[in-house]
Amino acid sequence: MAATGQITARPRPSVAPATGGAASARAAMMLRVACALVVFGVWEAVSRSGLFYGEVVPSLLSIAKAFGRLLVDPVFWKNLQVTALETIASLAIGAAAGVVTGIVLGANTFLMRAFEPYIYYLSPTPRIILFPVMIMWFGVGPTSKVALGALSAFFAVALSTAAGMRQIDKILIRVGHSFRATTWQMATKIYLPAMRIPILNGIRLGMGTAIITVLLAETKLSNQGLGYLIMQIYTRFDMPGLYALLIIVFIIAGACNALIGRLAKEQA
Amino acid sequence: MTSDSTIARPTAEPAMVIDDVVKRFGRGAEIVTAVDHVSFNVAQGEFVSVIGPSGCGKSTLFNIIGGLLGDYEGSVMIGDERISAPHPEVGMVFQEESTFPWRTVIENVAFPLELQGVAKSERMDRAHHFIDMVGLASFEKNYPSQLSGGMRQRVSIARTLVSQPKILLMDEPFAALDEQTRLLLGDKITQIQQQLNQTTLLITHNLTEAVQLSDRIVVMTYRPGKVKRIVNIDLPRPRTSDVVGSDAFGHYVAEIWNDLREEASRGMADSEAAASRRSAHG
Amino acid sequence: MADKAALPFYMRRAPEITGIAALVVGVFVFELMVRFGLVNRYIIPPPSDVLLAFERVIVEENILARCGETAFEMLVAGVSSVVVGVPIGAFLYRSALWRRALEDWVGALAAAPIVLAFPLFLVLFGRSPKTIIVMAFFHGLAPIILKTIEGLAGTRKVLVNVGRSLNMTSSQMFWKILFPSALPVIFTGIRLSWTFCLITVVGVEFLINLGGLGQLINDLAERYDLPGTYASICFVILVSVLFFIVLERIESWLQPAR
After folding, report:
1. Which member of C19, C200, C202 has the closest CB to residue A129?
2. pLDDT tens digits, C9-54
3. Which residue of chain C has the CA closest to A138?
4. Distances (CA, A) of C206 to A87, A190, B281, C185, C233
5. C58-254 to CATH, choices 1.10.3720.10, 1.20.1250.20, 3.40.50.12780, 3.40.50.720
6. How far is B228 from chain C (nearest CA, A)?
7. Region A180-205: what's the mean pLDDT?
8. Which residues on chain A are in Cβ contact (under 8 Å) with C200?
9. Cα-only R_g, chain B
């Protein structure tokens, strides 16, 4: 049963590595560059042709300029800080709750059968629709975004932790018992090391959804944060700015994802 | 169809000639000779086994004869054709489970006929015939997942036989099965082979299996894989697995084991040396 | 195991019954808390009101048409991502070079927060179902491509060798061996993709206040119809859970016992 909740940013599938040595790596890199150039070229051509009205497809140069403008704009940094704080807070709350829930569900078959189906089937529902409720509960300020983000992160972390808990090699546990390890020793010497990867993986997935959810909530209703900034720029119809900001957001999201992914790998 | 598979007897006419085959892997100092100047014939209607320890190049030989490994020195001839790609007259049965899980038994067996464009009713008839032959008539509509390992391997064998290959080439087809199943399947193979007068080349590392089934056994050496000896098995035919208890059988097993033991222990010493090298490096 | 089957139903199903009971008790506790004024009823309406609002939402809000609209957008996006994604996946599988060059990009697409770009799509396609469909399509594309590659690459070597031993042409090899062998994994990709599609469709409907079920929630929330908002959220969640369960069922049903 592949957890539907864990699809948002699943690691690259374990396909067999393509054969070939350094030469084909270089060829692939060249092909990549060529593809990028073609995309840029077509983009620029479309932009210059004026096929689309207005600035729907702005020139690359204007996007680059907007990029630069954003990076020196204190407004951008202030909003980034808001979003970052909201995301970190929501991830901390959601992950803590998720790990605890996951361990409880993973350790106890009865509770697992009683409650895991709810988490499993609720996890892939569109979270953003809960936003009106969060506003009623926590107001229009940052708290409602944090709450929604925490809720999103919770599912991924809980499911991944519970699955990791169950996947611990039974023989390791028997080895632990055979050496008469205390509960504390079992937890620190066997469970925790074995759980590190699934928990980190859950946090990576949870962070992905938390970032998206927080930003979406900000676009819907707020007066600060990157999501708010996106809507501001959209309202101004500043297309180069919109592209630039979206690119920045994608890069940040991708970098965070890669960072935790690497962390999980190093611990392996 | 040039099917002369009815009553032709073993003749001196070789169905396949393997002549001075050499296969090397790697390059420079890393070069490994897997198959080293191997020659033998397989006569029409004969059952020949190639036996040797792991690492004697059996699987490489299987791939060469099957045409899956086209780049080799020497020649494997069927008639006056040198094999360098899969030959339509060679039917292969693989060691691993190789039935198609998305096809029923009869669809699996009819598969080669489907490729040849044989009309549906005819291919079902012919598939049915061979399924019956391997004793799975009541399982035609089942999927492989509903069958045991031994039954699935019989499906694979029926699928190979259905296109009536001149030479049946099998790579340790019973390796994954338990000993009893293996003996009983051996009976089935013997029976089918005699019924079809099927020229068969079996690659195996199992000594009793080789003696139980073969007319001749080619014993290979451990790396590089050479022919150490060719043993004629003069056990009476028709043969069943009862033969396993006979004195003659024991005699052959002991005789071949004598040759094989030396090779197997060289192989074991080699892999132990490799393991200790690895641990010294790591 | 045999004696376990002999247990009465309520013993065998004790965990599931506990789960449902906990849910019912939780709802009941909320009801009491609201009734006794422990919780502000303008933040959390009494569950009984929400239950009653269900009828209203279903009868007055044109729910069938809304479901239809969401389903239509989801299906168009989902089917197109299959139609486009499977061939791309097959192509990337066949060409080692292209795969090496682009697989990481597809992976990045899978992880990219595409929904966030909705203002951009609004500009490109206007405030119309087109926007929703295109976004859902892009969201659903990556998992299908990745799973198609994974499935084809996961074909057991011996099955390919069977094909080679039968001198199959490369197109026979693809259609008769690689593709059927990859199908179960591709189905998993379709399930993931369609889940993405539904999430995106409902989410964007809600965000841009257009179309089916997503807009329903937005509408009721903007009218400050509290029980209605809660009821519609529950309704949408129920619909999506049902959708996932159906997808899972179809997935396992389409795979003959393997």
Report:
1. C202
2. 777 888 888 889 999 999 899 888 888 888 888 888 888 888 888 8
3. C43
4. 21, 45, 61, 32, 11
5. 1.10.3720.10
6. 29
7. 84
8. 126
9. 19
